[in-house]
Amino acid sequence: MAMGWRRRMGPVLAVLGLLALAGCAARYELPEAAPDALAPGAPGWDGARAVMADGTALATARWGRADDPEAVFLALHGFNDYRCGYAVPAPDLVGERALLVSYDQRGFGDDAQAGLWPGNDRLVADAATMVALVRARYPKARLYLLGVSMGGAVALQVAADPATAPALDGVVLVAPAVWGWSTLNPFYALSLRLVALVAPGWSPTGEGLDRVPSDNRALLAAMGADARVIKATRMATVKGLVDTMDAGLKAADGVRVPWLAVYGGRDQIVPADPVARLERTLPADLGRLERFPDSYHMMLRDRGRAPVLRAIRSFAGLAPVAPSTPAAVADVGVCRAYEAAARPVEALADPVVAGDEARDGGAVGPALSGAGS
């Protein structure tokens, strides 16, 4: 009976691209260092953590030029991921003249309430606070909001907010998760609402969904071993994700800053139709959607990520990165666990290739099976 129910619900879970981990062969616990919630007051950022208006401290990481950068990317991670989701692409993205700042969105990573959905409004408010903090720290730098997957849905809402958009020089949407209620099959939408209502705490792992989010095996192994990457997702959180995706799509026509969206032809998590709808909704005179046929959902961390990173640097007005000039790294901390996954493409052996699914009997292991990007 349980297996039958799981098979019936499988399409709902798979179609939403909602689970981060499947078939993890190895797990280990990273040192716990959850930031504290401080007394409510003025927001602040010391480079290692950012304090929101309600006193909640969110862990941050930085890559690149921390003093007088030409451009700053404020990076929002994807569903079930955290600040280290940018450890692989950051060095090549920032080069010598830029800085990338990422932070644990509330409900993820080292947040004390990790695994619980904080609400769309809170995610957007935190992102707006981070924009203000980074802009205050770097008033002369060009500031780009960079959102991956779920982070893209949050970024759309921030970029459409008249109170926040003027602080931005542009927004970059990477495999944006905009599969909201208005784009869902009515059966899937009803099923998810019912399950979230009657079993909000049910937390499936997504094992067996056979989704390949990237061809970077070193990355998938590192994420599988990373205790901060959420493995089992509460159905109430999944519903919250869809709420955010829906809000992101609805906000798209209000974006009033230059935008760039990138999407992979091998994305098995976010389907093409909602992304095409997003392209039609965003103001055409302010940006464009670039498609990369060989990229997966985690396109910034794929083996073939270089063309995508070049497109983003070009959008931000940055010169091409010289291979002999790696970026400086600051405040990375636990993200060093992803150093192997960030090796040059030619050093990453044994990629995921077509046919692996058949040979391995399903998911590539240790593999990710959802939108944890």
Explain this structure to me?
Keywords: Hydrolase. Residues 68-303 form the Serine aminopeptidase S33 domain. One of its GO terms (molecular function) is hydrolase activity. This is Alpha-beta hydrolase superfamily lysophospholipase. With 373 residues, this protein is of the alpha/beta class. It has a single domain (2-360), classed as Rossmann fold (3-Layer(aba) Sandwich), CATH 3.40.50. It has 10 helices and 10 strands. Strands 1, 2, 3, 4, 5, 6, 7, 8, 9 and 10 form a 10-stranded mixed sheet that branches. Strand 4 (71-76), helix 2 and strand 5 form a beta-alpha-beta unit. The longest helix has 18 residues, at 120-137. Mean pLDDT is 81; it is low at 1-7, 14-38 and 346-371.
Q: What are its keywords?
A:
single chain, 373 residues, alpha/beta, disordered N terminus, AB_hydrolase_1
What does this entry show, briefly?
The protein is built from 10 helices and 10 strands.
At the first level of CATH, the class is Alpha Beta
CATH topology: the name is Rossmann fold
- Counting DSSP E segments of at least 2 residues, the number of strands comes to 10
Q: Helices and strands: which structural class?
A: alpha/beta
Q: Please identify which CATH superfamily we are dealing with.
A: Alpha/Beta hydrolase fold, catalytic domain
Number of domains: 1
Biggest sheet character: 10 strands, mixed
Separation of the first and last Cα atoms: 32 Å
What is the helix tally? Answer: 10
* Mean model confidence by pLDDT: 81
Helical fraction equals: 25-40%
Written as H for each helix and E for each strand, in order along the chain, the element string is HEEEEHEHEHEHHHEHEHEH
Rg calc: 19 Å
Q: How would you describe the shape?
A: globular
Strand content: 5-15%
Please name the CATH architecture: 3-Layer(aba) Sandwich
Uncertain residue ranges:
1-7, 14-38, 346-371
